[in-house]
Amino acid sequence: MSFWQDIKNPNFSLAPMEDVSDTAFREVVLQTAQTGKLNLLYSEFTSVEGMCHPIGHDKVKHRLQINESEKALLKKKNVKLIAQIWGKDPEKYYKTAQYIATETDFDGIDINMGCPVKNVVKNGCCSALISQPELAKEIILATREASNLPLSVKTRIGYKQIVTESWVSHLLGMPLDALTIHGRIQKQMSEGMADWNEIAKAVRLRNEIAPSIKIIGNGDVESYEDGLEKCQSYGVDGVMVGRGIFKNPWFFHPDKGAVSPEEKLDLLQEHTRLFEATWGRTKNFAILRRFFKIYTSGIREASSLRNTLMTTCNAAEVYKAIAEYYNMLKKNEIA
């Protein structure tokens, strides 16, 4: 039986995000999450074309890496981990799904039919599949045939215009366990407000067509409490959180209360340690810089520390910058 049938409602998940949701950051999120408040984690977007390329495979498979320390936390906190894949060739989906099922420890597979990035959709991938329903069907069926892992799709309410009824009805006829719906069309990218009324329409369609498929809502979930309210108001089984995690790394710990500056900087150092221990020099350290604003937001002299951190090139320099920041605060207090 699919874990989707056993998962509690309302459930909460962290969205798959490019250069964000790698094994190091997922572990950070697991560390901060209150047990029972986070249910699902997703990998970074993983290209089936890259996975099936004789040379590209080794350059892409790092997106599916799961550290042993992350595995331990996933088990401890009963969180499921899902590999998200994208592309447009059903045969490559088949081969990639087989690889994930036999060579990795992921609990499920998710197909990306929602990414709006222009250089992706111009090649007919991700949200471009909304306007290619028959190809989308072939992809789903090929992935389903290749693996017994639970299967889900993440998509949007339309490509150039809203087509929730026709598109979601089409997907609900597929052998899926869950469907995550972002309440924007591709043309909007991340602009404007997500339309949760359209997500609610998808729930009503699900109730009529395929009651067993879980519906997850996505878009503008600002806090854990906001997520609970959206589940109640729009009837979704759960919510997926994206940008909200950048405002609060303790998003999935609603009982945490106020977070001290020391806790934020300790978490920054832990994330830095995990990133360097995992990737060494195989990944550009600059990727980590996008997280610095998260950890320095709301602390004293934040801009000064952030400016220093943005020049760092390795973990040692990050630790040094933080130590110097603390020394500066002490000197200011003495003066």
Automatic annotation (TrEMBL):
Highest taxon, organism lineage: Bacteria
InterPro entries, A to Z: Aldolase_TIM (IPR013785), DUS-like_FMN-bd (IPR035587), DUS_fam (IPR001269), tRNA-dHydroUridine_Synthase_C (IPR024036)
Keywords, ordered alphabetically: Flavoprotein, FMN, NADP, Nucleotide-binding, Oxidoreductase, RNA-binding, tRNA processing, tRNA-binding
Active site per UniProt: C115
Stated name of the protein: tRNA-dihydrouridine synthase
Stated family: Belongs to the dus family.
Molecular functions per Gene Ontology: flavin adenine dinucleotide binding; tRNA binding; tRNA dihydrouridine synthase activity
Binding residues annotated for FMN, in chain numbering: Q84, K154, H182, G242, R243
Catalytic activity line of the entry: a 5,6-dihydrouridine in tRNA + NADP(+) = a uridine in tRNA + NADPH + H(+); a 5,6-dihydrouridine in tRNA + NAD(+) = a uridine in tRNA + NADH + H(+)
Ranges where the DUS-like FMN-binding domain occurs: 14-318
Pfam family, any one: Dus
Signal peptide: none
